[in-house]
Amino acid sequence: MKKIFSRNGFTLIEVLVVISIIGILSTILYASFGDARIQARNKALRAEVKETQLALELYKSQNGAYPVNQTEYESNLTPDFIADLPDEDKSANSDCLIEYDGEVGGSWYKLTAVKCIGGDEVVSPNDVMARCPSSCSATCGGVNITSGYLASDEFTKSFAVFSAGGQCQ
Question: 117 with 93: CB under 8 angstroms?
């Protein structure tokens, strides 16, 4: 009598080759989607800051003035006007700092995401959310917009929302 052997599985070598190929492909995909993740985080944080601008306008319509400082901004805006404030940890740049500046009388504010843009993306003075828009005078925050703006990482990686009067502060 002849014995017939049937092969019902994969050899160890075949399994290791397949795992190696999957590992190489996943590494390539991870590297190629890295920029997309950074851009998505940049856009998400910009959207959160823009949403906060709407909450600040609602706050002013109900209270007659904007919050005057960072403490009032953090304590009075949530949860009545917005669920969560923009979070620096959601930024694509680990040096991110979100600052609120307001006038004592509450007539203007500026909410700035300082160095929050990651990757190769930069904000120019012509951007609607530029920290220092081109409509301001020649200087903004002690930086010469016309010549020194693009040289400063703090300004090219930053964006802001502001009320009338707050943009050049």
Answer: yes
Question: CA-CA distance, 119 to 59, in Å (whole number)?
Answer: 34
CA dist 23 to 7, 30, 169, Å? 27, 10, 51
* Structural domain range at position 145: 12-162
User: Comparing 37 with 146, which gets the higher pLDDT?
Assistant: 37
Return the residue matching tokens 């081109």: 134
Other beta carbons less than 10 A from residue 2's beta carbon: 3
Does residue 134 sit within a domain? yes
Domain-embedded: residue 34: yes
Bridging pattern class, strands 139-140 and 109-114: unpaired
Q: Which of 60, 163, 42, 166 is nearest to 113 (CA)?
A: 42
| pLDDT tens string 4-54 | 666 678 889 999 999 999 999 998 888 778 788 889 999 999 999 999 999
In the chain the beta strands, taken as DSSP E runs, fall at 97-102, 109-114, 139-140, 143-144, 159-162
Name the domain count of the chain: 1
In the predicted structure, residue 165 carries a pLDDT above the cut 90: no
